Structures
1.
Amino acid sequence: MSADFSSPQLPPVGILEPLGDDDRDILSGYGVFRPVQPGQHLIEEGMAQTGLYYIISGKLHATAMRGGHKVLLGSVQSGETVGEINLLDPSAASATVTAVDFSQVWHIDSKSLEAYINEYPRPAAWLLIGVGKTIARRLRSVNEKIASFYGG
């Protein structure tokens, strides 16, 4: 990724690590690159959400309103994703994601992902395996938090 955002590229990090340079270049054309300024919301809790955001650079916080209080759910940074569940099952966002630092992200919606899967099934399989691993890792983390809350 160029510093001025004029030559966007998807790096071989996180869910994109198994993909070759050509596969990442092709995949990038199915989504949209966007800069996110500090304090800017990438996703807003409760709003319709239909895609995945891949963090190229920067740092963002995921927060949710619970009992009238803003709760920090976690941080996401380079090589990580947000919105992966809504990529597979579009719904309202369960959290607000806000840039802490200037961030560069890439977004793909479910319709574009479906087109990519149909045209490039092998690299798409690796991408979906990465998405599945991310969801599984986050689910395990939540399960551990719930178990520790109940003394388990």
2.
Amino acid sequence: MTLVSGDAFGDLFRSFEHTAFRLEPRERYNSPGEDEPLRRFLAGEPDDLAWNRPWLDLMAEHAAKGKFVHRVRVVSVPLSDYSRFGLWCAEFAIQAGEDIRYLDRAQAAGLPELDYWLFDSKWAARLKFDEDDVLLGAEIVTDPATVVELAAARDDAWHRAITREQFLADLARESDG
């Protein structure tokens, strides 16, 4: 199995024509450069988001071109510190044009534990991680039967997931009750 990583991985997000979808079933992602922003978030310190600017700019560029980037994050409730950080980060990605939805892990039965991007419903990138949750790269999948399975999982996850705003409202309601 050959993994796409580095600049070649980044090129995946410039090569699709219409849609890109990600299913995020993992509890945590250990991304280089994210430790300091996570620390600042947990300490309540300001953040200029410079570390995330390339992604936010790319999302704005795609939105301006009419490309649709969306994802479903499967999260455990109560939220971990990392999931709270991701929920905060999502606000800026959504403002830039990405559509991020949330699904409580307790309601995710039947969805694959596979973390993947699906591009134009034609090909996928199955993400591979090491034991420390660091992304190693992506395996490119073009087998039509596998792509159809991943598209069905996308549709199922998207149907069950709720917007960030609704998820926050549900969390607030649960903490009040």
